[in-house]
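Worked Example 4.2. Read the sequence first, then its structure tokens.
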Amino acid sequence: MIKETKNDITKTPGSTYQVFMKNGIFQGISGNKSRKGKWKLSNDNQELTIKICIISIKFSVDYFDAKRRITSSSETGTLEYEKVEE
């Protein structure tokens, strides 16, 4: 994650990643903590749902290309990610 904005406060959290794998498998990584879950993209590619344990968050996909993604939700605010090359 390169930028997080919520309630007009912008943060630049380090070492925060989202990994989207085949078959809807998701992994969220923050520092040395990791959580696994499921992800689903709507048919029109406008809504991303991530479910970890019993928590499910729906994100609006505000921008998406091969290198960058911006999503937003009322719970998390706006999250901006850049693709990390393997």
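Now turn to a second chain, presented in exactly the same format:
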Amino acid sequence: MNILSVENFNGYFTSQTSLWGSFHSTCDRLTYNFTPGVYVLSGEIDSGGWAFAASLYPQSSKNTIIFPDETTLYYMGKKASLKEIQKYACNLDDASTGRIKELLLKSSVKKRVEQGIKKNRLDCTAEDIRKLFLIASERYDRPLNQVGIDLFSCNAAINLVNRKMIYCFPWLSQKHFPYCKVKIEKICRVLSDYGKLVLLPVSNQVNGLEKYNIIEFPRPLE
């Protein structure tokens, strides 16, 4: 089944991450059916791939201008608004995910994973999840804004136990990607095994991603 389907996706978006700060971009003419797995959104920072992924962040609602008369979205086969889809998506680069940032920044990753397990009555432990994503023990006991290179993995762990379906990486350059490659591949493997959708925006200069689905940006003119 398609997790997400987009028809003629057009809009203006503000993408903001700890890596690149705030960046304004557009996404034009994207029509695609996304099934579970990893999709590489290949293009430069302003080519539209990152704009599309960033539009799905729950925190992006205030920074999104989408053209509704031209765009149709479906989640799990049912027509949905972008705001509805954002409930099932997450930003793997976010160091303060949640409604009350101040409180969450004081909570360790481990505690938030434990809360998700309890809330959703999952048959696993926080330690099982830590080992699944190969998160360093000392970082697991810190809040998200103090986990360093394990930020992507920690966000994936928290959102997995909270049953999110769509996982969005920030845009990664040719220079930055090699530093994160091992962790990214591990995250992608785990999330794919759990039937999730992963969006990975990268520079079109990044190589070695042929095992994933690749979508080139900007989209070709029809």
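Notes for the reader: The chain has a mean pLDDT of 88. The helical segments are 49-55, 82-86, 101-104, 109-120, 126-133, 137-140, 151-161, 177-193.
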